[in-house]
Design goal:
There is one protein chain. The chain has helices at about 1-20, 25-40, 45-50, 70-80, 85-90, 165-170; strands spanning about 55-60, 65, 90-95, 100-105, 110-120, 125-140, 145-160, 175-180, 180-190, 190-200, 200-210, 215, 225-230, 235-240, 245-250. Helices cover about 25% and strands about 50% of the residues. The protein has two domains: about 1-160, Nuclear Transport Factor 2, Chain: A, CATH 3.10.450.50; about 165-250, Pab87 octamerisation domain (Lipocalin, Beta Barrel), CATH 2.40.128.210. The protein has about 250 residues and is α+β, with helices and mostly antiparallel strands. The protein is elongated. The strands form two sheets. It has an eight-stranded antiparallel barrel with strand order 8-9-10-11-12-13-14-15. It starts with a helix and ends with a strand. It contains six helices and 15 strands.
């Protein structure tokens, strides 16, 4: 009998938790998520952003590591919103609404699960998708205000405007010669990777995200790599900055 009662209680608890994926609690968390990330973070309103963090805030990120405190998070946000960062890589985070799930945490607050997509904002007013990720967030109701206490941000993946077939990506693999360096191109999953070679030594390297079969972009600044063919052979690499050709490299035979 005790086993049956315990099982009934467990099933009731699960039912209640799942029912909270919509309703008042769901709406409240969806609203504070939007206010924090879609308004305060996007607009770099640091005072408003800080107002959503609890004094014992912690942040766990699969790429950037552990942020131990509210002060550390605000220091990082100061860099994120700094003039250099914002001029080179202004990012916008967009919640995938269909992924949002909210669960009540008794005598505490709410647990949020969601997926989101990140966009690079180009200086001509357009955007390009650069990545995706997942977030688990713990919200606490403190003096009738929702405060973010813990965030786990994980499963960050590069995401491009289009997907190019592997056989097309392989056509671009090789070395492209410039006066001051060699531009090396290799495939990396569904993307390309560019590496500058100076005096035989690899240096700067970044992922290239496809926007068409022969054009690829960086996940910062407005830089595009365009591969050109003569007949069936790829012969030339044009590098654009802000829509204008910056460099032209010929492929090494």
């Amino acid at each position: 009998m005790k086993i049956l009662f315990a099982l009934s209680t467990l099933l009731l608890t699960v039912t209640i938790c799942f029912s909270q994926q919509s309703g008042d609690l769901y709406d409240q968390i969806a609203q504070v998520d939007s206010l924090m990330f879609s308004t305060a973070q996007k607009d770099c309103d640091l005072e408003k952003y800080a107002s959503f963090l609890s004094e014992d805030f912690e942040f766990f990120h699969d790429k950037a590591g552990y942020t131990a405190s509210k002060d550390d998070e605000m220091e990082d946000m100061g860099i994120f919103c700094g003039e250099e960062q914002r001029s080179r890589q202004p990012l916008r985070r967009e919640l995938i609404k269909s992924s949002l799930k909210v669960y009540p945490m008794d005598n505490y607050g709410a647990l949020e699960f969601c997926d989101h997509i990140f966009y690079l904002q180009i200086n001509d007013g357009t955007e390009k998708v650069v990545g995706s990720g997942k977030m688990t967030a713990l919200w606490k109701l403190i003096d009738n205000e929702w405060k973010l206490t813990r965030v786990i941000s994980y499963d960050h993946q590069p995401l491009a405007e289009v997907e190019v077939a592997p056989e097309i990506l392989n056509q671009y693999v090789g070395d492209y010669i410039l006066p001051d360096r060699v531009v090396n191109i290799v495939t990396e999953g569904k993307l390309l990777r560019v590496t500058d070679i100076n005096d035989g030594q690899p240096g700067w390297t970044k992922e290239l995200f496809p926007e068409s079969d022969n054009k690829f972009y960086l996940n910062y600044e407005n830089v595009v790599y365009e591969f050109l063919k003569k007949g069936t052979q790829v012969t030339t690499l044009n590098i654009y900055e802000n829509g204008k050709i910056f460099e032209t490299a010929e492929r090494k035979n």
